[in-house]
Amino acid sequence: MNEPIPHDLGLQLPLPPGALKFLLVLLFLLHILFVNFMVGGHTLALLFELAGLKKQKYDKLAKEISKTITVNKSLAVVLGVAPLLVINLAYTTYFYSATSLTGIAWIMVIPLVTLAFLLTYLYSYSWQRWQGDHKTLHIIVGVMAAILFWTIPLIFLANVNLMLFPSRWLTVSGFLSALSLPNVLPRYFHFLLATVAVTALFAVPYFGRQKFDLESRLPGFERNEIKRLFYRIAFFVTLFQFMAGPLLLFTLPVQGISWELYGVILIGVISAITFMILVWNEIRPDNPRVGRFFGLVVVLLTTTVVAMAYGRHIYRDRAIEPHHEAMLERTQEFYWASEAARARVRMGITQQTFGSGGEKAFEQNCSVCHAMDMTLVGPSLTEIYEIYENDIEAIVTWSKDPGVKRGGAPMPAFKHLGDETLTEIAEYMLSLMGAE
Predict the structure, then answer these.
(1) Max Cα separation, the chain?
(2) Interior CA angle at 8 toward 4 and 12, to 5°?
(3) How confident is the model at residue 414 (pLDDT cuts 50, 70, 90)?
(4) Beta bridge partners of residue 348, listed in sequence order
(5) 231 with 282: CB under 8 angstroms?
(6) 310: closest CA among 272, 263, 273?
(7) H/E segment holding residue 20
(8) What is the DSSP letter of 55?
(9) DSSP assignment of 143-191, as one string?
(10) pLDDT band for position 406 (50/70/90)?
(11) Closest among 216, 211, 212 to 57, alpha carbons compared
(12) Distance CA 276, CA 296 (A)
């Protein structure tokens, strides 16, 4: 491996790893739902405000959409704390390595979010006051907030994506270089399209419900008309996602691809196609009952979103699995080296001289667990001699891939030492008992 392999922290997790990862997927879905409403809502409000320069009814629609953004952004932030904490626990080394490498951009997330929220409040509550001569200024504020809303997720995506590439940790130098890694931009554009599609779908029942006073709040719109408008947006944006999706898949590095991933993606695609068929039926001009299949449409879209979220989890775990295994091995080495150092201190050995390379390697790697005539963590050298009296090769083979022959802590694998060093250790151990 060319990537850096640190040792893990070795701290006890509050829950089993599987439970943490399940919580991560669940909590992330709740968080990302309101992120979609926040980012997609502001994007649609800005686009409708621009359309309102020609048709006043769209300006009123933009204003109504903007009223939902301040609530959704608060929920997005509150619900974002939990998945952030869980990912810190489940992928500690990977997450902190990525955040360190993205540097200033990651540190800037909080002030950027704060500024985006302030601009959003200004955009929403100055709508009436900044009509007429100040309309351009109002649009500029909306554009500034939109740029921030579009930038902050890019920082998060670059950071989470960097977790998957330990081999690039030594070459990445800041946020911009992290953007050059595979999959960041395709995933980002797929996300932006999703925010608009999900928000448009949410707007169908929100503005189409009977309790919404359409005549006074949105004059010029009919109820079926506004439902069709948002259904069309959801339909055509999802159509673009069908184009962006394969690009997203094909830019994924192959080390995380599996048949399980393809199966989960297939479920999501089938649900999305069925979703498109139903929405197309909803927007037909001759359909008098627009919204009749809305419940089923939501179920299908939810299935697609869950499948894609679970697919990302499958890919992430598979992509970092070889590095994670190497890191666990390095952690075991670090643990036993620490134990050996403590044992030498307890015995008053502060400086050692060695008669051979085998003796040195034994003292550094094996002595904490194996003593001459007594059982420590592992069997004594006397017992080892009885089992492997003249079979150095068997000791080397066992050391590279040990099993468990008795209760207690399992012996870590020492294949990283190489056959030559393991042979020297085996020769030294047997020589202590008088073997040739």
Answers:
(1) 100
(2) 165
(3) confident
(4) none
(5) yes
(6) 263
(7) helix 17-51
(8) -
(9) HHHHHHHHHHHHHHHHHHHHTT-GGGTTT--SHHHHHTSTTHHHHHHHH
(10) low
(11) 216
(12) 11
State the Cα–Cα distance between residues 97 and 172, nearest whole angstrom: 11
User: Are the CB atoms for 432 and 384 separated by under 8 Å?
Assistant: no
Question: Are the beta carbons of 368 and 340 closer than 8 angstroms?
Answer: yes
Q: Where are the domains of the chain?
A: 17-330, 352-432
Instruction: Report the sign of the C-alpha dihedral through residues 18, 304, 260, 242, in that order.
Output: negative
> In one letter, which amino acid is 33?
L
- Distance from C-alpha of 136 to C-alpha of 348, rounded to nearest angstrom: 79
CA angle 341-346-352, nearest 5°? 55
CATH homologous superfamily of 352-432: Cytochrome c-like domain (1.10.760.10)
Retrieve residue 166's tokens: 């330990």
User: Residue 348: pLDDT above 80?
Assistant: no
As given in the structure block, the two tokens for residue 108 are 């800037």
Q: Is the distance from CB of 161 to CB of 183 less than 8 angstroms?
A: yes
Sign of the dihedral through C-alpha 82, 84, 85, 91: positive
pLDDT tens per residue across span 275-333: 999 999 989 888 888 888 899 999 999 999 999 999 988 998 998 998 888 888 878 77
Instruction: Please state, in angstroms and rounded to a whole number, the distance separating the CA atoms of residues 117 and 73.
Output: 8
Compute the half-sphere exposure of residue 48: CA atoms within 13 Å on the CB side of its CA: 24
Helical ranges in 181-222 per DSSP H: 184-208, 214-217
Residue 54 three-state SS? coil
Burial of residue 288 (number of CB atoms within 10 Å: 0-12, 13-18, 19+)? exposed
d(CA 162, CA 187): 13
pTM of the predicted model as reported, rounded to 2 decimal places: 0.78
Does residue 308 contact residue 238 with C-beta atoms inside 8 Å? no
Number of neighbours of residue 214 by Cβ within 10 angstroms? 17
Contact 178, 101 (CB under 8 A): yes
pLDDT band (50, 70, 90) for residue 350: low
Q: Are 428 and 358 in contact (CB under 8 A)?
A: yes
Q: What percentage of the chain reaches a pLDDT higher than 70?
A: 94
